[in-house]
Predict the structure of MYND-type domain-containing protein.
Amino acid sequence: MPPPPDFTSTTLFPSLSSIPLPSIPTVSIDASDLTFVEPPTLPKASDPNPAYYLLAEVKHNMTITKPTLICKDRDGVEFALTFNDEQLDLKARGLKKGNCVVVPNARLIPSEKEGGSGYVQVFKGEGEFVRGLPGGLEGVVRAGRRMREAQEGRCWVCAKREAEGEEQVRLRRCTGCGVVRYCSKECQTRDWSEGGHRGECKVMKGIREIWPDA
Ligand SMILES: [Zn+2]
Ligand SMILES: [Zn+2]
């Protein structure tokens, strides 16, 4: 199992202010050499290998006609995320208050006002590529870090390795997230009640659904 993406990477998960803007090709005006210039290709949410993702926490739903969410990015900046898909069911996609939203190749529409943060627009037909994660920003970043740590083949609680020493240790994965491993029912129960896995299990499952190779 390869590790999940590194949520602390500001290149892969930029804040709103560092979303790359599409570059517009420059046209040289020369009548003798008039060539057709392709319009800039904008990154799409549907791209199978997105260059980056906007990860933000949903603060509230502000839908009037177009589905619109007010979100907070990793720098604590609030912005609107609008979908040009009036039929999109935000709740069914896990896009509700307190959860995180993941927008592949998010497109920032810069503010016309000086100092404005701009907003993010998801074009028609791209809403289905925007996913929700069942936890806030802090919880998602922590779950991602713990998923990377869980790569090592040890019991998540007592650190016992498989087939160590005389005793046959068999590690079993949590069936909820399929990420963390335990040597025994005791270790699993302890992690669920005291270790905080109760809260992070569904977040880890959600991360694996978005990044299935994780
Ligand atoms: Zn154990
Ligand atoms: Zn789990």
